[in-house]
Amino acid sequence: MTTPASSAPPGSGPWQLARAELRRRPSVKISLAVVALFAIMAVGAPLLSSLGGWGPEEFDKNAVDPYLGGLPIGPLGGISAEHWLGVEPVSGRDLFARVLHGAQVSLFIALAATAIVVVAGVAAGIAAGYFGGRTDAVLSRLMDLTMSFPSLIFMIAMMSVARDVNRIALMTLVIGLFGWPGIARVVRGQTLSLKHREYVDAARVGGSGPWRILTRDILPGVAGPVIAYTTLIIPGMIATEAALSYLGVGVRPPTPSWGQMIAEAVAFYDTDPMYFAIPSLCLFLTVLAFTLLGDALRDVLDPRGSRT
């Protein structure tokens, strides 16, 4: 029988109780397994693609039929012992290698943009909530301004006019630029409820400066909601990167990306559905796994936020 979190050993702290609650949820175990799988795919993309025998930019003209418009030779998009997930139509590039390196690009951009969002949002939220007054007013208005800005239109315009730049770095910065106000508001609200707690007042009376109070007393108190919110925004970052690449303003060929691969596969969805299905399935599973994991973390680490 599964032991509920409420029957954890006496004296268990909140983090131990949270881990016990998460361990008993099958959705968390499945989500972690899927996330770990795609993380291994991304990190080990060069090694895994070399095991398959093909690089992401290598062409295999013998795997496509020039008399049928370049369609893959063989069933299910050319899946065979030589090409484990088949090949791209016309070019004959190995789909297994492209998916692996696409995972590397998509996940790197999403995680790096999330890191920017979390650092900026936590810093702004803690400063606004703790110092209050003019600092709170300025940062709150900046949050409102950023959230009201048509971010997707700006991203498309920015990515369209930028040339001769590192597209991956630019996408990371542009996506991260508009994501911080949401987490800043969450942290601000938590900070407002924590800054007048007894242990914070005791630290202030004891001579602790603002920096020590923020890092030693306030930051650990907001860690739970931040972790839950971070896991929830990663799927949005992955989807945003895929959308920009799908629209042709994100990562450019020959660098692979799941969104870019889906865009290229649209022209072949009726003649070679596997070319469309494989990157779409990878994108769907990754977003779903992070979403389920984030929902579970929010329920456990920030139960008040899950009811709002």
Q: Could you walk me through the main structural features you see in this protein, from its secondary elements to its overall organization?
A:
It contains 13 helices and two strands; from the N terminus they run αααββαααααααααα. It is mainly alpha-helical and 308 residues long. A two-stranded antiparallel ribbon has the order 1-2. Helix 8 packs antiparallel against helix 10 (210-246) and helix 10 (210-246) packs parallel to helix 11 (258-265). It has helices spanning 14-23, 26-43, 45-52, 95-131, 133-148, 151-161, 167-177, 180-194, 198-205, 210-246, 258-265, 273-301, 303-306, and strands at residues 64-65, 71-72.
Give me the side-by-side strand order of the main sheet: 1-2
**Fraction in helix:** 55-70%
- The gross shape turns out to be elongated
Spans of at least 5 consecutive residues whose pLDDT stays below 50 are: 1-7
Rg from alpha-carbon coordinates? 23 Å
Described by strand count, sense and barrel closure, the largest sheet is:
2 strands, antiparallel
**Strand elements, count:** 2
Q: Total helix count?
A: 13
Q: Helix and strand string, N-terminal first?
A: HHHEEHHHHHHHHHH
Mean pLDDT: 85
Q: Specify the structural class.
A: mainly alpha
Which percent range describes the beta-strand content? under 5%
What oligomeric state best describes the polypeptide chains here?
A: single chain
How far the N terminus sits from the C terminus, by CA atoms, comes to 32 Å
